[in-house]
Amino acid sequence: xxxxxxxxxxxxxxxxLTKSTNALDKAIERLTTGYKINHASDNAANxxxxxxxxxxxxxxxxxxxxxxxxxDLIQTQSSTLDTIQNLTTRLRALAEQAHNxxxxxxxxxxxxxxxxxxxxxxxRITGNTEYNGIDLMGSTMQDTFKDxxxxxxxxDEYEDISIKxxxxxxxxxxxxxxxxxxxxxxxxxxENINLNSVGATxxxxxxxxxxxxxxxxNNGHLCNNDHHKFVLTNDIDLSEYSDxxxxxxxxxxxxxxxNGHTISNLYINRPDEDxxxxxxxxxxxxxxxxxxxxxxxNVNITGDSYVGAVCDRNVKIENVAVTGEVKANxxxxxxxxxxxxxxxxxxxxxxxxEGANNIGGLSGQCxxxxxxxxxxxxxxxxxxxxxxxxxxxxxxxxxxSVGNVKSDGDCVGGICGLLSRGSIGNVYSTGNISGxxxxxxxxxCSDISIRNASIEYSYFLGDVSxxxxxxxxxSFVGSYLGGKTVRINTCIYNGSSAGINAVGMDGNVNxxxxxxxxxSYNRVIQVGISGSDDSQLSFNTFFSxxxxxxxSEMGMESYxxxxxxxxxxNKVNNMQTKLGAIENRLMSNLESISVxxxxxxxxxxxxxxxDVAKESSNFIKS
Length: 622
Hints:
This protein is α/β, with parallel strands linked by helices and 622 residues long. The chain is built from ten helices and 42 strands. It has a seven-stranded parallel sheet, with no helix packed on it.
């Protein structure tokens, strides 16, 4: 039947045509995109699954790129450390050469010049290693602290206490004889005449003059006048006193001005005597003689208690330098003074000091210390041991210590063993500090029983440790005595090295604006695709070259140079080992990511990719 209103045959044809067109369109879409699922309507479940797989694949590809960049970062630092290792190997060869004892002063100077250039290069490399604009290892400490705190932290200008051409921290204006009758040449006086009543300046010009000066002082012909002043006008070599008991300490009172000159090869071997040094104080406790502008080179001093190369005790020290070794069988010893110093300023020491209790790199005990440094190693068996002083009664300011401090006793600090009712400011320590307990990077123990103690604008970048598993150890202060407060303001420490609290004891401690310098060198590589810790690899790239910086100042021939170089080489090796382990983890992660990408791609292909033969057939049929 033919209907006027409805053409059924036409509708059937149109329906089949639409169906065929839709099938053709889908076949064409699948052939052109390569996917059998292009819309959620194609397969709702598989569409959702493939979208998630695509997102994971994109994340894995980014994680792969992150890991590759992490590898580049690690390999950049590792290559830098290889260069540093090669330079340090040459530095050690120079130190071993200098220790041979067959080289004169000029040859040693050449060796030390090359060593200084190597050390400068190590510090330059350490401070300039970057990856993609990131400071990897730590710029020089000076620049780091300027950036963080302006011009205030930890000796921001090293030149303030640098060694001048005369071997001292301060330049010295050469003494000029005014020829006015108030200046006497020791060579012109009778050594048997008592000159205690003569208020004059005495000139010492030779080793013979120095012998006469020593004889007159020890026989009471010069030592009873506080106004006596003695001026050295030439360098003196005391190597003739190199056996037996050596040089006899000089009973001293008044002022001795070294006038920028050097006394070399001082040897004293009096292990059973107290009060041993070049000078033996002849003043009462509380009084003070003054020794200034003097350099003692290559000393070898042994005594019982109150032992120092310059003086035993009761002195004021200004612009003095000492190199060599000092040993006390008892208590109170320092490279410069044994103990009871009223003040030490603009002075330094290099070498080694040993003793029992109250031992320091400069002095066993001191009230005030300013503009001083020590590279000496301090080795002791007792309590109150410090890189600069065993005990400080008042203040230490603008000073540093880079030597190692080790004791079998308590209260051991990189700067001071026992800070008795005092304060320190603008100081730093970079050595390895070790004791039984109450061990601190700066102060072993602080006595706050009478008044508060303070530490300001200072830093510690070495290692601090206790020989006890439960020993009290702190980055700045080991412990404290009394009920007052220890205030620590604007200080810096190396948390990656020390890994300990600022103060070993909880309680009366007030800490403000203190920073872990290594924290800014924490690196996090996103090696996975989730936000969990398992998808991140964390490590620290901080590596300071500061502990090698002062090797050249010590001199390659000096005591401890080989040990310090070996310790720095071990530090480089340990860092390389750490970086190597991280590099292996990153390489392993790359392999794991590659497998995940391969498996995900295969799974997504199974669900999403079109069958070309099937879709071609559909295209032809349509």
